[in-house]
Amino acid sequence: MAKFIINGGKVLKGEIDVQKSKNAVLPILAASILTEQKIKLNDCPDILDVDNMLKILVTLGCNVERFGKYVIIDSSPISSDEIPSKLAKELRSSIFLLGPILARLKKAKVAYPGGCDIGIRPIDIHIKGLKALNVNVKEEHGYIICDASNMKGADMLLDFPSVGATENIMMAATGAKGKTIIRNAAKEPEISDLQNFLVSCGVNVSGAGTGTIIVEGCGSIHGTEYTPIPDRIAAGTYILAALITRGNLTINNVVPEHITSLISKLTESSCKVQVFNDKITINNSKRIKAFEIIETMPYPGFPTDLQAPMSALCCVADGTSIILENMFETRFKHVSELVKMGAKIIVRDKAAYITGVRRLHGADVKAYDLRGGAALILAGLSADGTTAIDDIYHIERGYQRIENVISSLGGEIFRVR
Ligand code: UD1
Fold first, then answer.
1. pLDDT given for residue 65 in this prediction
2. DSSP 249-309
3. Is the pTM of this model over 0.85?
4. Which of 93, 110, 121, 156 to mutate to test the pocket of ligand 1 (most atoms within 8 A of CB)?
5. Which residue from 1, 235, 256, 293 could staple onto 275, CB 3.0 to 4.6 Å apart?
């Protein structure tokens, strides 16, 4: 099993481009099967979640080719409507395929999804949305079996603005007769990116970024070439990595508006952050002040995906920070590992109370999920001595060669087998 070894204490300095968004690319890859024509996806991140999604597309019968930075998907020969449980377990986003498979083939058999173990993560909102579209849904032996032969547009209100459910229903609705209105839809930038992709394929869809999305179904859907948005969570992670080492960093090719919640927290804590059109620079040679309270929320609130990296920064901040995790029940698994590195953290229900220490120290730790793993890298970069992180496949699900990015900024991190 591969590990990351980090020799802490190096100040990160320099300039990077950020990878494209994992959470935008995954639903777009799923949506690529809505058309029989070819899809070309530029700058597709080279990460494990993308590999797994491409494997699933191949299992369905698609021809998938990767040429360096771009991927071409030809789903004309699609031959199966079934996602086997082994692949579904490796990738929670396999659930997104339910919508597109139904729109294209009118039936589907999908195993219950896996992915990061960060809570119960039910799929009831997805299923309710599909049922509203008149899809017949049965659950049998760990599989969701759907018949969408009479799928019809509908006006529905989601119980919660779930990102995945909004995307799934948007994609299913492209194959439903008539108009679908999704109310209380998620507003994340990745939803707008999915809409932009669908529009570039000829789908009549509007409203993404607001709470109401409207899809006109059963139009013709054609191939396209598309470049997804930059990864706001990776950008945020690198900003926090630079801050924890008291370094300075310029991130190019970002959409600063997508991480306003992070930038405003950092500004509150008197970090020097400069925001330009498509770049952000930060400069921080002093110990950061603790954050009064950070609460994770749906967009545009503070993203749950940056909660763990932010906790790492709080571990060395001056004072006590409170973090409230409102989105997922078990998203504090990195805490036990940070404590091994000398962090002072108490967790009670959904709150973590973090009292900053002057220095963390290196330790042998384990990544339990993607963003928690990234938090351990950040902690290792700032710690005295050496940190070894196990189970780094979690990190490699979402960060494209994070060790190279950090090394290019002067950090000492090695991937070893
Ligand atoms: C997506 C992101 C993930 C991010 C999350 C929240 C992708 C691939 N993943 O995950 O990185 O952390 O949004 O911003 O885009 N819920 C239900 N029933 C459902 C669906 C969700 O109760 O049917 C609950 C979840 O358990 C969770 C909350 O709603 O508590 C938010 O989940 P959701 O927005 O659906 O997250 P994902 O789409 O899984």
1. 96
2. EEEES--GGGGHHHHHHHHHTT-EEEE-SSEEEEE--SPPBPPSEEEB-STTSB-GGGHHH
3. yes
4. 121
5. 256
- Asked if 98 and 108 touch (Cβ cutoff 8 Å), the reply is yes
Q: What is the DSSP letter of 163?
A: H
Minimum mean pLDDT range among 91-100, 147-156, 244-253, 322-331: 91-100
Please name the amino acid found at residue 130.
L
Ligand 1 site, residue 123, Cβ cutoff 6 A: yes
Per-residue pLDDT tens over the stretch 51-93:
999 999 999 999 999 999 999 999 999 988 888 888 887 777 8
328 lines ligand 1 (CB under 6 A): yes
> Does residue 310 contact residue 349 with C-beta atoms inside 8 Å?
no
Say how many Å lie between the CA of residue 158 and the centre of ligand 1: 13
**CA trace torsion 378, 379, 384, 387 (10° rounding):** -90
Nearest CA to 399 among 92, 133, 4? Answer: 4
